[in-house]
Amino acid sequence: GQIVFASNRIDTPNKVLQRLKVDHKSLTPAAKQKLKTLEAQRNQAIANRDAALKSGNAEHLKAAYKDMRAASEELGEEAARIFVEQNYPGATPLRSKLLTDGKQGQFDQLYQTEDGRLLVIEAKGGSATWGSRMAGTKRA
Q1: CA atoms within 13 A of residue 91's CA, in its CB half-sphere
Q2: How far apart are CA 80 and CA 102, in angstroms?
Q3: Does 1 map to a domain?
Q4: Could you read off the pLDDT of 68-92 as tens digits, one per residue?
Q5: Per the domain annotation, does 135 fall within a domain?
Q6: Adjacent-strand bridge partners of 46
Q7: Domain count, the chain
Q8: pTM for the whole structure
């Protein structure tokens, strides 16, 4: 299934109902290794960002932040996929049809469960926080 486009206005003040975690004990060795590899890449990206901060070079810092965000996002996305597999076996991934070029304004992951429920996943990697670009009725 796919999401049918109805509106590109998905920003609403968020309310985190629960923060869910992956059950690492039940992971396959391959899944554990993939998460460890992604975590190591994220940690290296953080170290590179810290070095760029100390260097004072704006271009290096900009690139380091971009790499750090990408590594953290990849770790969070993988953890979210694993969480859905563990807790909603058989859920079908859905693709968004929002009219944007980037990920801004789109859900990280969408799934439909076997009983028809829609799962909206906001994946977070590392120390990322939940937030919204909405401040009251204004976009931040």
Answers
A1: 22
A2: 19
A3: no
A4: 999 999 999 999 999 999 999 999 9
A5: yes
A6: none
A7: 1
A8: 0.71
